[in-house]
Predict the structure.
Amino acid sequence: MAKSIRLVETDGMRSPAQTATQSGAAMRDLAYVEIKRRIISCEFRPGEPLNEAQVANMLGLGRTPVHQALHRLEVEGLVSILPRKGVLVTPLSLNEVLDMIEVRATNEVLCATLACERGHESDFKAMREIVDRSPPLIARRDIPALASLDLKFHTAMSAASRNRVLAELLRGLHEKQARFWFLSLSDPQHLENVYQEHLEIVDALERRDVPAVSKAVRQHIDEFRKNIIRTL
């Protein structure tokens, strides 16, 4: 009569099943991050069909983590999974982005106001350091790096607000708007304008000038809105 083998976890050791589960989760997360990055940067263009097998081969991953990642991205509204038709990158909608800008305008002004009141000097220093990295990137028109920097800037301001619910809301809006951000940066002057607008926001935060920072944030978002309308 064969004896059953029972794997027991000891301190510092994991069972093969646990290791496999963790490895699977890591592959799923990697697929999610990489596909999302390509969608946001418009490497996978709006309205483009995605083939699971081809994406898996491109990423050097199995189809299972890619399949799981695509379902997660569908929940976030970045892809559509259509029965018998496959996966499509969600097309861009001007009305949708204008709706997001409307929501962002109200909440980001609130975020900046709270950051003025609750932020630490170290928060403002971190934001200043992020902004100071912009000029060389603008000079060589490194759009992906500038997009990443923009997200870091707004994430840092959200952190300074000390309101996690607000920060999470704004993070989602910025990620969804990132594709529009990439398309709107075809104009070199707009790159410089974004840099100057970020400087004005940091200057006002450092002075803890609530009216000035509110005005700077409103102008920053309004310029983004105008540029999107010109671009799309």
Summary: The longest helix spans residues 16-40. The chain has two domains: 16-89, 94-231.
